[in-house]
Write a structure and sequence with these properties.
- The protein has about 450 residues and is α+β, with helices and mostly antiparallel strands.
- It has 2 domains: about 5-215, PmbA/TldD superfamily (PmbA/TldD fold); about 215-270 and about 340-445, no CATH class.
- Helix content is about 25%, strand content about 40%.
- The protein has 10 helices and 20 strands.
- Strands 1, 2, 3, 4, 5, 6 and 7 form a 7-stranded mixed β-sheet that branches. Strands 8, 13, 14, 15, 16, 17 and 20 form a 7-stranded mixed β-sheet that branches.
- A hairpin with a 2-residue loop joins strand 2 (about 50-65) and strand 3 (about 70-75).
- The radius of gyration is 24 Å and the shape is globular.
């Protein structure tokens, strides 16, 4: 979407909400949130296009408030002004009728100090034809399977008090693998704001190396503790699980349901190398939320291995008597980041030496949530390494270990660079969740099957 189109979307949203505000009655307050995208996508298998297209959509969510009573709903917008104004008028009428039947909400909190912002992150994203040419070159002679999605995502907030916020970013996300047979595939991700041919070539070379190794007979390992390198995608799978289930949320901490409760109580800690952030400034999620509160550029959640702060939604702020820091109602990170360490990224093989290289994990869940003990399976290409060289693939393993071992007393180090990982989910709309993860060398990850 061009800069002019960006301005058109923003202006159009402003005009719709200004019109809706003019039709409010009494002391009503209207909160409005817009999410939208203009995304080119290509689905491939056997290095050939199976589906391609462009998606343009806008979804508007409204919350109609009077006093402490409110009702919320949403509608799809068409981009046709008369049609969209009619849809909004109908939705407001419905919400007004619903609100008459609800009681006061004791935890309702929205921003009454209008603060308007505008932020655009414009990347250098190849068009679909150029991206496809690169993918076909990379997959020549191989079975490349994956999806490429690229373009603009945008979010807006507006209220009847005069506040206006806008956030837009242009990104690409390639979620792909070189498929061999059965469950054998070399999986990789490449995502970001600016496409770099050299960076992509390095990922292709590594996946090709993995693909060659997958042709060897696998090694079956007995249960036990193994020296392990967790690649950034495997790290993201673990830490995102902890975050989704309240590790960094205020409500989970106040109600003693946080998986990091032992850390909050001072009974456990991570290694001093571990600092975990909600890094809104470095992500692709908007820097504001549905009640109109702004998000700081960063919130330090774990500082040098110790509990530091939580994500606080407006409802939790109201309930527990603390300040909100612009978290969503779920209070899980949307721009999760772990600060890099000092293990040279280009020297990971040497740092690991002999042990397991784990690129991906799946079926992750808690085996003991209150101890932050996690279980799951290795996925796709997991390899046995010896003196920095791939020996052979490993049969599927189940791990069961605690965060306080993996990022605590058994952590040898984190890589000196972090990888940007964009959530490839496209359910309803393209996700704006992201993570910046280093890899981790762990001296003894526990595998039980």
């Amino acid at each position: 979407m061009s800069g002019g189109a960006e301005r058109d979307e923003q202006t159009y949203f402003d005009a719709l909400i200004s019109d809706a505000t003019a039709h409010l009655v009494g002391d009503e307050v209207l909160l409005a949130t817009l999410t939208g995208e203009c995304t080119d996508f290509i689905r491939l298998n056997n290095t050939d296009v199976r589906q391609a297209g462009t998606i343009e959509q806008r979804r508007l969510s409204l919350d109609l408030i009077e006093g402490r009573r409110h009702a919320a709903g949403s509608t799809q917008l068409t981009g046709v002004a008369d049609t969209d104004r009619h849809r909004i008028d109908e939705l407001v009428t419905t919400l007004r009728e619903q609100r008459a039947h609800v009681g006061d909400d004791p935890y309702l909190l929205y921003n009454t100090d209008p603060t308007s912002t505008e932020r655009t992150e414009a990347g250098t994203v190849p068009d679909a034809d150029a991206a496809l040419a690169d993918l076909r070159t990379a997959g020549k002679g191989k079975d490349l399977v994956g999806i490429y999605a690229a373009g603009d995502t945008f979010s807006g907030f507006a209220n009847s008090l005069g506040q206006r916020n806008w956030f837009q970013s242009s990104t690409f996300n390639l979620d792909w693998c070189f498929y061999l047979r059965a469950d054998k595939a070399a999986k990789n991700l490449y995502a970001g704001f600016d496409w770099d041919d050299d960076a992509f070539a390095r990922k292709v070379e590594w996946s090709s190396r993995q693909l060659d190794a997958l042709r060897r007979d696998p090694i079956e390992l007995a249960p036990g503790d193994y020296r392990t390198y967790l690649a950034p995608r495997a790290m993201e799978e673990l830490v995102s699980l902890w975050g989704y289930y309240g590790a960094f949320g205020r409500r989970a901490h106040e109600t003693r349901q946080s998986p990091l409760l032992k850390m909050v109580a001072g009974e456990e800690r991570f290694a001093p190398e571990v600092t975990i952030l909600e890094d809104t400034a470095g992500g692709v999620a908007p820097n504001f939320q549905a009640e109109g509160f702004l998000r700081p550029d960063q919130v330090t959640l774990v500082d040098a291995g110790r509990y530091a702060d939580t994500l606080v939604s407006p409802r939790s702020a109201q309930e527990f008597g603390v300040d909100t820091n612009g978290a969503t109602i779920g209070e899980y990170p949307e721009s999760l980041a772990i600060a890099p360490g000092d293990v040279p990224t280009d020297g990971v093989d040497d740092a690991l030496g002999t042990g397991l290289y784990v690129g991906n994990l799946w079926y992750t869940n808690f085996s003991d949530r209150m101890a932050c003990r996690t279980t799951g399976m290795t996925r796709f290409a997991t390899f046995w390494m010896d003196n920095g060289d791939i020996v052979a693939p490993i049969g599927v393993l189940r791990f069961d270990d605690t965060a306080f071992h993996l990022l605590g007393d058994r952590l040898e180090g984190l890589t000196d660079t972090s990888e940007l990982l964009l959530d490839p989910s496209t359910y309803v709309e393209r996700s704006t969740a992201s993570a910046r993860m280093p890899g981790a060398v762990v001296d003894g990850m526990r595998f039980v099957l």
